[in-house]
Amino acid sequence: MLEEVGFVDVRYGNRVDTFAGAPGEAKARRYQVHGYTFVARTPG
Amino acid sequence: MSATELPVDEDHLRSEVRRKYREVALEPGAEHHFHTGRFLAGHLGYPAAWVDQVPEQVIESFAGVGDPFALRPLGPGENVVDVGSGAGFDSFCAAWQVGDDGHVVGVDMTPEMLDKARRNAALVGADNVEFREGFAEQLPVADGWADVVISNGVINLCPDKHAAFTEIRRVLRPGGVLQFADIANGTPVPPGALREIDLWTG
After folding, report:
1. Cα dist. B79→B94, B157, B166 in Å?
2. Considering CB atoms only, which of B67, B72, B175 is closest to A42?
3. ipTM of the complex as predicted
4. Taking the complete model, does pTM exceed 0.90, yes or no?
């Protein structure tokens, strides 16, 4: 989607187990939800 | 999915997200489905120098999902927009990096978070940070003003992510950088479940 909007040089970092040990962990596990970091830039 | 085929009612989702984050602002110690506060910031890998130095009330409502500065530290003098700034912790981390020659605009749609963020700015002496009310899809920032846009756990709460990214691109200068943290699912969410508002807000 970032590229669709016109961003370029999209990269992402390691996943983080954001919900580990949190009350919402079971729901997060159901859909394999993790946190990620992203960087992209506009052309120019 | 086009903007006319949103899986949930946009106004209802915003209302529910406001309700949830009002709770996080006013009752950060209550049980939420996600971690919050200083523990969470440490868990996500923020530098101890940032996490340990702030007063409890500045970090207690932090509810990010990653470290938006992990892949790229900010530079001195950069103008930064923090989309969904909450109680301001990421905005202050940005302010410390850009220094006195930079400026940070935090944008949030929850009045209780904005109030708390403004009090927190005064508490940490962040003179180069201001907080404005607004939506990710309608940022109260001029075209091309920002060198960098940051965000943390907010885009996933926007029903129309294409509109949010388009608006972020509008406020970035040519060559500007979007750096953000957010959640993503490894297993597809069934179409029916996408309409469950609780799945969006927790």
Report:
1. 9, 25, 19
2. B175
3. 0.93
4. yes
